Amino acid sequence: MYLSRARVLFAARLIAALVGLASSGFAHCEWHYDKQAIMGTEVHLQFWHEDGEQAAAITAAVMGEFRRIDAALSPYKESSELSRVNRVAGQGPIVVSSELASIVDKSLWYSDKTRGAFDITYATVGSLYDFRAGERADQKTTDTLLPAVNYRHIQLDRKKHTMGFTDPRTKIDLGGIAKGYAVDRAVAILKQHGVQNASVSAGGDARLLGDKRGKPWLIGIRHPRQKSKNAAVIPLEDTAISTSGDYERFFIDDDNHRVHHIFNPATGMPAATDSSGDATDSNKLISVSVIGPNGFDTDPLSTSVFVLGKEKGMALIEELTGFEAVVIDANHRMFFTSGLQQ
Ligand code: ADP
Ligand code: MG
To answer: Does 176 count as an annotated binding residue?
Structure first.
């Protein structure tokens, strides 16, 4: 069967019109995605922008900011400001950047608020752990170093931006707050460029800007024991959510204990393995998600609630206005703060 000439022309015009629509309609008004390995995790970025070229520049600016923060705060990079502080602040106060000072200041605020459950000096002992290699500090080393684990050893001069440690063995790590800080910075950059709808996450810390253009963002809380499953999916917009779990970085030791990356500063050991009977202690949590206006607060709060356990942790979130939590205990039961219960 042959098509008439007129029909062929019509079909060609239709295709041209569709192609035209594809380049003028879609490319100028679309979702942009990027994913990069930074800060020891995967950084995901999704945002709506009408101009493809500008969107590429915005993506570069956001990812560049994550890399800048990682270069300053990574404990694994010899050249980071954090590593320099850990090398010399034990000998006396040194001048630090206003950025590092403000993150340490915020960390100290949460140390006070949580009576030491959140404590960046956990690293004095925590830095001896290598979860990939299955290495931990032995009991004797932990006991010897424990007095140096205490946020009160941090002397921060908020005006002069100087910092020192009163115990020469003290070390700090900002892994419990830096990613939340970074997703906030990312959203600030997106806003500066006029972006109104975005989702940015770095591992367990996510910040949402606006909604998903007419519908909420759907954020999955991972099942703490089944990798590819969600334990819950929560619709959210214009907020931050941080999740702390014992399943992100861990190894199982010879006694069948889960040795993971969230430490109880009081014992110098991972928060859920320092007492016996993981599954019978109803206060013990294995996953904590905190929702609130920004990652600079939800990140340290999720770590704090994990260390505090269900009772004290949920009480802390109830006491703070604008924050909610979803937690999963060792028996895989899920609990919500009052604002989420409707
Ligand atoms: P992640 O997103 O890396 O899983 P979390 O918010 O769960 O982070 O915090 C865990 C990280 O916080 C650890 O990897 C460590 O760097 C740091 N950390 C562990 N225990 C504490 C603590 N008690 N106080 C402050 N920071 C901690
Ligand atoms: Mg956290």
So the answer is: yes
